[in-house]
Design a protein that fits this description.
The protein has 209 residues and is an all-alpha fold. The protein contains 8 helices and no strands.
Length: 209
């Protein structure tokens, strides 16, 4: 009976700040991406293409075609995924596998941003809030879960699963956004402009060689 009371007390330590806080931390992080991503891509795409020539051409073309509207809808779709995981965590006192997987994926996502910034040797969208919000929140939340005795063992395959799910959710969110926003005349024009910019950059690079 004492053990049961102790377990209930420990579980009660995992409150909304830990579980629903995931959604709040994610929203602050994605606010940075939402404000900077489309413009950053347009400005840096030719340079990135020259710096990383082994990346398939289709990746650059797809990146250049993403406009602010599509990205905003994709962020909204991802918000639904994160909100669902956060609520599941709240309802289970942090025990939910979906919540803990999402939390791990969030932290790994922050590390990916820092890696991207290191490869580019400069700012990339999301690289400011990653060390200020994403990583500190993830470590703090995991600490609270561990102290409450509900943190699941984290194995390498669990981290790989979390990162894979984060990538899959991102692709799914953009797929949904693409279907909802449609090409539209303005977006089609921007896509052609982006392709012309990439092709022009490619041509000048070949001439320089």
């Amino acid at each position: 009976m004492d053990n049961s009371s102790s377990g209930e007390k420990r579980s009660a330590e995992v409150g909304g700040a830990v579980t629903l806080g995931l959604l709040a931390a994610w929203a602050l992080h994605d606010a940075e991406e939402l404000a900077t991503m489309p413009g950053w891509w347009r400005r840096n795409l030719p340079l990135l293409r020259e710096r990383f020539p082994t990346v398939p051409e289709g990746v650059w073309r797809r990146a250049g075609a993403v406009d602010g509207r599509e990205f905003a809808v994709a962020v909204g779709a991802m918000a639904a995924v994160v909100a669902s995981a956060s609520v599941a965590g709240r309802l289970t006192g942090g025990r939910s596998a979906a919540y803990q997987t999402a939390l791990d994926a969030f932290g790994l996502h922050g590390l990916v941003h820092l890696t991207q910034a290191g490869l580019v040797r400069g700012y990339t969208p999301g690289s400011v809030t990653s060390p200020l919000i994403v990583l500190p929140f993830t470590l703090w939340a995991r600490h609270r879960l561990r102290r409450a005795g509900v943190l699941r063992p984290t194995r390498p395959r669990d981290l790989a699963l979390g990162l894979g799910l984060a990538g899959a959710a991102t692709v799914a969110a953009h797929t949904v956004a693409r279907r909802l926003t449609g090409p539209g005349p303005r977006k089609a024009a921007r896509t052609e402009e982006g392709r012309a910019r990439i092709d022009g950059s490619s041509g000048s690079g070949r001439e320089g060689r």
